[in-house]
Design brief:
- The protein is an alpha+beta fold and 811 residues long.
- The protein has 27 helices and 16 strands.
- The strands form four sheets. The protein has a seven-stranded antiparallel beta sheet. A five-stranded mixed beta sheet has the order 10-11-14-12-13, covered by helices on one side.
- Helix 9 packs across helix 16.
- The longest helix has 71 residues.
- The radius of gyration is 47 Å and the shape is elongated.
- The relative contact order is 0.08.
Amino acid sequence: MADGVGTWNVLEWTQVTTPKHGLEKFLLEAEDVIVHKTGVVLLNTDEAGILAVTNFRLLFVSRASKCIIELGTIPLTTIEKITDDVKLTSVPRNSEKRELLQVIGKDMRVVTFAFLPKTMQRSAVMDVLKRYRKPVQLWELYAFQCDPSKFKNSNPKLRLLKEYYRFFGKRLLHLPEDESYIISNDRWRMTTINSNYTLCPTYPSVLVVPKSISDEELLQAASFRTSRRIPVISWCNPGSGAVLARSSQPRVGPFMSSRNHSDERLVAGLCSSSADSSASRRKLYIVDARPIANALANNVKGGGSESSSNYFKSEVVFLGIDNIHVMRESLSRLREYVDTHGTTSSDGTSSFLRNGGSTWGGGNLSSMSGSASTLGDTGWLTHVQNVLSGAAWIAARIALESASVLVHCSDGWDRTTQLVSLASLLLDPYYRTFKGFQALVDKDWLAFGHPFADRMGIPTVTDLATSTSTEMLTRQSSMGNASSSPLHSQSGSNLAGARGGTNHNQASDNISPILLQWVDCVFQLLRLYPCAFEFSSRFLVDFLDAVLSCRFGNFLCNCERERQQAGISEVCGCIWIYLSDLRAIGGRSHEHFNLFYDPSRHEGPILPPAAALAPTIWPQFHLRWACPSEAHASEFESMWRTMNKKYSETSKAKELAESKAKDLESKTESLSEELRKEKQKSSSALATVNRVRRENLAIKRAVQSLGCRVNLSTNQSHTSSDLMASTYSDDPSDRSPHDLSVSISAIEDAGVVSGGNPLSRVCESMCPFRTKDGCKWPNEQCAQLGSQFVGLKADFGAFENLSIDDQYFHS
């Protein structure tokens, strides 16, 4: 499929730059092609292409589409089994003479490749797969060949301590160099007695225990528990004081005759109301995850289960969950059932057409075990239901009765981890968020030592004793991180962990889908309570794929101590950063987010009734290879996600439009304010002009009354009438400056005689002082003005030189 490239290249991995095989654009950072063959056919889809084996995965590229086919591309550590002994009951077209290779994955896929006969293609691929699928040394894994800086791993110890601090209602921002981070309250305390992993090699370095129990008592109790896994607190309710604790089985021996007083005091401390040993105690449930017959059988080996008579106010309950071997076989039958009854099986034939359609189902690849005729025959859903029911029962005891619960199985790292982490998920809504889910897995699965290396069949640090120091130094030098990895300083030394080294046969016997089964249980709860979880089913699928691929260092080795010895956090990338970056690319519309998440609806514990715990097959994981169309999210969810994406885009567009509208409104208000101020200025200027005009007219009349003429002139060519019109114009656009000059001169006699001034005509006809030479005023008397002005000498030269630059016309 075309989007297969995006599955691993979403984050724009560094591409290989040296062209060698024509597959360079499909390769990841530090991924090298070891062998590749052309003309190979993927029988499941009857598609031809190039099959390559790299140091990370089996890679199949379609010849027609030139894209990665996701079904035929599988990480090497995800492969559970390969075989060339394949016989098909229904042989596809053109495949009769081809050589077949079957690949069975831990992720429910069964694929079959057909090679050209007599070409040694199949043999070459088989040899490389056998060598690289199960590497001898831990550092041969692809995770050690990548640059960890892109997905920088934070300190696992700091992540665990942050979760412990949350129990105490406090926050921890950084890890102090000393032990000042150790805190306590009136019920519990943190202890570093296991800082060197001497108390229990498979426990974390920091533990939470009852405050009433001393470190000396913890050491004494360790000898009474298998693998020294003493009862410690995994989760606590700050309000009620009830705790969820975990341990391994007690070493009571035959007839349950052995006792340990320190262990009994430690267990009793789990149900105390305070550090005062005399205080009242709550009820304690001791939950043994095993069938009772298995627990009794362990008595012969020195193990067994507690006697309620030896533990105050306790009740022992058996849940009947089967062991890792039963779970492995159950998943194998489920995988076969899905392949047999899928849309297109690994032999390329639809289940509807197999055996001529005479029966439902039918035969499949003869190399596999006998086919399960019904889904119920696989037993998988029954096992999932048992785990769900057990976890729901534990959560109900803590939430409804405020009782404390101690959970264990045989070793305390498989069924115990499933039950404790699932019950915590039900009790604490924080664990149903992205951050909380990470904290839960880091604490109960990684810190408390679920043996991931054994369960996935990969090497761990216990195998490093067989490697030479030269090989390790050469490998680390090529990686450029030899000095930073503890492997460098400990090369050549025996780094044996708590679990002894195992050969490949023993390792295969220890492989089991314990984590896969737990994630399946989480999906069932997500299906029942779709509004309670921040993450989606797709997130769980991608999480499982990343774990099974061993591409990141988080889930390598068997415990915290081994990962610290191998320097995993310094030299390998972090799965949580990878998943977080994926979500960051798509934002809230990314498919990892649950569209129906509403934390307000489930703010407290969720306690599913037994009748509701009827699991179904997980389509997105179990059916994605055999029934790809049916494996996709339901049509309703797809439509909802599409609508939600459109709504998100529309909301962003609306916010942008509203922002622009606010900006325009702000600008409009600003312009309106400026216009209002301009109008005020214009009105004020007009009033001033009118006032000045009236004053000037009055002055002009007064000057004329003295018998003088007022002349206006500028440096521009304007007539006197034009100038006056322009000067007193109301048009605000006419703001050109005028160098205005005003001159005053006496009216000549000729002007008086010939002019049209009525005053002059009166003087001519009535003035008794007028002579034939004209008016002699002001040297002589004037009948109009009276004799008081006789002898007045006007300084006409000053009037003629008078120039007025009217400041009003410049405003």
